[in-house]
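Prompt: For my understanding, could you write out one protein's sequence and backbone structure tokens?
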Amino acid sequence: MRTLWAVAVFLMLAMPRPVIADQVSDGIAAYNRRDYATALRLWRPLAERGNSAAQSNLGVMYATGRGVPKNNVRAYMWFNIANAKTNRDFVAAMMTPRQIAEARRHSRNWKAK
């Protein structure tokens, strides 16, 4: 299971993307060099403004506990908001029904700033 998650994270972060905000790319570079604090600092404001790549990347951080405390509810929420269904469903498989309900509630109540 851990290997599958590592492959999913690698593919998501290594996947070429069309022209996106430099902060997302800079965050990916920081994440890949294990500078999670910088990645978080770059991605969080973008995610809060509705950038789906940054939202999905925050989901990875919460799912893996890199740069933030591991929190599957937050990971699910960010993946759900980003419409990253595969990653969301992967995290959901490790959650209780109550945690999933909580994550869905957070997703519904989230609004871009």
